[in-house]
Amino acid sequence: MGLPLQAALILLLFLFCPAVSRVIDELPHCTNSRVMEGSIRDCDDSKGKCKVFSAIQIRLGLHESACLQLKTNSSEPAFIHTLEYLRLEHHHPIAGKYSFGIPQIKPSCICDCAGGDVTCTLKEYSHGNCTHASICYRTHSFVSNEGCLTQGQAEACCDIAIEPYKGWRFTAIKINQPDTWLIFRYSIFSRSAQTWRQISSEIIKVPLNNGIARFQFNQIHHIELSVSGGPTNRRVEPGMYFVREGSHELHGGTLTPLNDLTETHMERLGWMRFNDEGKLAIYNGDTKIKIAHSVRVINCVKQEYETKFAGREYVLDTGKRVTENFDLGKALTEESWIKTARVESRVVVVEHGEGSYVNIDVLTETRPQILKHPSQMQNFSGLIQLDRESNRFLNVTFFGVKGTLIGKIYKSETKTEPEMTFSVQTSLSKTLDQLSIISVPASINGKRYVCFYPASDLKGEICKWFNYDSQPLHSYKALNPFEMQVGDCHGCNARGLEGYLVSLDPRSWLNGLNSPYEWLAFIAEVVLGIGLILLIVALCTKCIIPLACCSLRIPKYSRKNRKK
Q1: What phi, psi does 247 have (nearest 5°)?
Q2: What are the protein's UniProt keywords (predicted)?
Q3: Claim to verify: residue 212 and residue 259 sit in the same structural domain
Q4: For residues 18-51, b (16+ Cβ closer than 10 Å) or e, as one string?
Q5: pLDDT higher than 70, residue 281
Q6: Over 245-286, what HEC string results?
Q7: What is the pTM of this model?
Q8: pLDDT in tens, 183-220
Q9: Pick from 63, 14, 135: which is nearest to 436 by CA?
Q10: How wide is the angle at C-alpha 211 spanned by C-alphas 207 and 212, nearest 5°?
Q11: Gap between the Cα atoms of 1 and 433, Å rounded
């Protein structure tokens, strides 16, 4: 046979063999998880016949696998049926949603002293709107007359421009109580020469809302399964959560304030929203912004003032400084017990990193052989951590591991009494490196001696000292202070012709006199003013005018004096 013909045959085998079966180098790691084994007699009274089934009860933890080898008779080839516990998922239905942004607020104010040219009017600025931003409101308030030459009350008029910070857009969602789903992989392997071939594989999604689920497989052998599970220790609580567009990280929870679907509190995220047309809107914004905005005048003539907003979850832009006053919290996946959290069209799917045990009752027509594989571990490293929210855990990296590992924590190398004993389930099939997060009790608050060994292989135990890393509690920002600004108003508070005409009106002279002390001061000023005027008149009539007349008078000479 020539080389071209051999190459063609090899190519045909490569193309067509995978369509029939796929060669598997290793089976899933089979866990030693048998709990109880027996038999059940099923009798039919009408026919007088009984049928005997083999019954096995198996308990699996997350990422564990059960392997059963079945053989109907001695002439039939052996088959291995595997059931892998892949995932535990909570499917939270979405009850409602809305889009929102982080408000970037840029106030611009002018201060108008009383008595000058009018640049700030109540009619123009009170509950008015401006047009140079996506959202723009105008406010008017009476303020201190610091720096003014007149005694009347000054006025502050502001334009409040609001844009979405950095163009960010978020989607807030409200989730309800979840449905619980167990995800398994059911596979069948047949023995061929020295390898196992996978002849069948399917993903099974088992609902656990009713507590127990039953299903059958009849491909090669008749197998009946009944699956029940215990409750999860932790779960995502129903409530409000959010995700930023372009990201898949779900945020929220009790520590992140977020407005409900019908709320618009300015102390929580979500008070500036996008409507159905994609435009920004603030519910009752003209009133809320006016109440929330405060102006404190430093010098009205120099247009120096301080500004702040009551509330949270916004960005203040003063022109010279941008201050962030919001907290997006942390992603749900930062929790050690959450592996993934993704938002779909009408549901939020949370995959647990810890899971819960499941009980599986298996009925077969022939007695199966339970298979198990030895666990492996080459080495490990890690430390004990206390994070900023007081979560205490082992952060361990395992090298060359497969199967189940047993761990123990001691106070010293004498290993007299373990403080904690636990197990870790690693890779399902291949020997890999793996990072694991393991919760520990509060009594472990320092350096500890940590030991691991593969299940059923105590001689393979490896022990190491783990350092203790403690982080301080998360500090939350205090309320935002006043921010200094300078208004842009050239020529404001200049006294033009109109201002002088107004000041000549006697009705304006008594404005601002509200107490006896102010009246006494006014009378004293009037008396001093009249006395000063009389003094000036006396000086002019008695001294200045006569002296001027004397100095300007020209002497006259008579003709008689000339003749002489």
Answers
A1: -130, 160
A2: Membrane, Signal, Transmembrane, Transmembrane helix
A3: no
A4: eeeeeeeeebbbbbbbeeeeeeeeeeeeeeeeee
A5: yes
A6: CCCCCEEECCCCCECCCCCCCCCCECCCEECCCCCEECCCHH
A7: 0.76
A8: 999 998 887 767 778 888 899 999 888 878 888 887 77
A9: 63
A10: 70
A11: 46
Which phi and psi angles does 525 have, rounded to 5°? -65, -40
> Does 31 map to a domain?
yes
Are 253 and 158 found together in one domain?
A: yes
Amino acid identity of 476? Y
Do 298 and 429 fall within a single domain? no
> Is the domain of 72 the same as that of 203?
yes
Which token pair is 173? 């969602």
* pLDDT class of 5 with cuts at 50, 70, 90: very low
57 and 196 assigned to the same domain: yes
Establish if 352 belongs to a structural domain.
Answer: no
What number of residues does the chain have? 564
Q: Give the span between the Cα atoms of 13 and 49, in whole angstroms.
A: 49
Task: Give the model confidence (pLDDT) of 183-193 as tens digits.
Answer: 999 998 887 76
Mean pLDDT, range 374-390, rounded to an integer: 91
Would the pLDDT of 549 be above 60? yes
Token look-up 């640049």 returns 119
Q: Is residue 66 domain-shared with residue 107, that is, in the same domain?
A: no
> Is 265 within 8 Å of 271 (Cβ atoms)?
yes
Lowest-confidence segment of 5-19, 110-124, 133-147, 242-256 by average pLDDT:
5-19
Q: Examine the domain organization and report whether 167 and 244 are in the same domain.
A: yes
Q: Which helix (H) or strand (E) holds 397?
A: strand 392-401
Q: State how beta strands 65-70 and 79-100 pair.
A: antiparallel
Closest CA relative to residue 199, chosen from 439, 352, 33, 27: 27
